[in-house]
Amino acid sequence: MPPRPPLTCLTQPNLPPDLPQTSLPQTSLSQTSSSTIRQSQSSPFSNPLEVSRWILFSMGIRIRVHHADRLPSSPFLMIANHRSFLDAPLLMAAAQRPVHFACHHYMSQVPVMRDVVGALGCFPLDQPQKRGRDFFRRATDFLRSQSSIGVFPEGTGPMVDITAPNEVGPFHRGFAHLALRYQSMAADPSVKDLKIVPTAIVALEEKQQDTVPFQLLSWFDPSEPLFRQSGRHPAVVYRRVTVVVGKPVAVSDWLPQVYGGKQAGTMANELSNHCHAQVQALLKAGCF
Predict the structure, then answer these.
(1) Which UniProt keywords apply (predicted)?
(2) What DSSP designation does 43 have?
(3) 39, 65, 250, 266 — which has fewest CB within 10 A?
(4) How far is 239 from 222, CA to CA, in rounded Å?
């Protein structure tokens, strides 16, 4: 396994014009009211948001959220960089509402883990041969029921081969196809204008540790090639982390024509590249 990257992001790149450091509104999980904390402790599994708060509070993770006011009041599709098993509860706590995140198939197969992802309201993807159709169906059902969803477009790669805190890997385009396909059904009264919310998770202080053997995970999910290696699955555990919410991207602006046919791939690629650039800019801006 290659050497692991630095644990802390210490550089401070130039902030983009629309994200000056001095104008970043800051909130912290430590500022949550004592009544909310007591409620989380007394009934930690009452709903996904409370589960998220309870996990983060119990681990003593210090969190700051920038630009939470950018989150739409209507259901949205949140995307973010992904290096830790804590990313879904972290983003849910930052959004202050339940967000249903797509997660890897094996998480629904491993005891205890499947209970945790279920309590978080995540929806595990199906096996590879059914994964695409299952993802679109379940994600669309959530959006039609006025629930927000979340996707990590980098996939599981950065969690196995951990990247540096200030890096974003290539995006898979599934989230873009989902957004365009959903928005193209606007004639359906249950379909609302969808916005994608690019978000950056900035690890300021973290630790990395080895967890379960890859071979054990491969036993639960033989279809995952990343598990066909020796050693143990690494895990990133945040100590101090910042969440930077980007400006919502209106999917209708990226749908100038009917979605489908040969142009569907081009449209999804352009939307995916735009969102990737947004997450990368937010990550660099928040990495100080």
Answers:
(1) Acyltransferase, Transferase
(2) S
(3) 266
(4) 33
- Whole domain around residue 111: which residue ranges? 43-286
Spatial contact of 139 and 177, defined as CB atoms under 8 Å apart: no
H or E stretch at 262: helix 262-286
In whole angstroms, what is the distance from residue 62 CA to residue 57 CA?
Answer: 9
* C-alpha to C-alpha distance for 79 and 102, rounded to whole angstroms: 11
Exposed/middle/buried for residue 229 (C-beta within 10 Å: 0-12, 13-18, 19+): middle
Inside any domain, residue 253: yes
Residue written as token pair 């990368």: 280
Distance between CA atoms of residues 26 and 31, nearest Å: 10
The CA distances from residue 288 to 11, 26, 284, in Å, are 6, 14, 8
What tens digit of pLDDT does each residue of 90-125 get?
999 999 999 999 987 777 777 777 888 888 999 887
Q: Nearest 5°: phi and psi at 147?
A: -115, 140
Query: Which residue bears the tokens 């994964």?
Result: 131
Residue 279 DSSP SS3? helix
Q: How far apart are CA 101 and CA 116, in angstroms?
A: 13
Please state whether the predicted TM-score (pTM) of the whole model is above 0.90.
no
Q: Torsion angle, CA of 146/70/66/145, rounded to 10 degrees? A: 0
Q: How far is the C-alpha of 12 from the C-alpha of 275, rounded, in Å?
A: 22
Judge whether 29 lies within some domain: no
Using only the alpha carbons of the chain, give its radius of gyration.
19
For residue 268, name the pLDDT band (cuts at 50, 70, 90): very high
Q: Is residue 34 part of a domain?
A: no
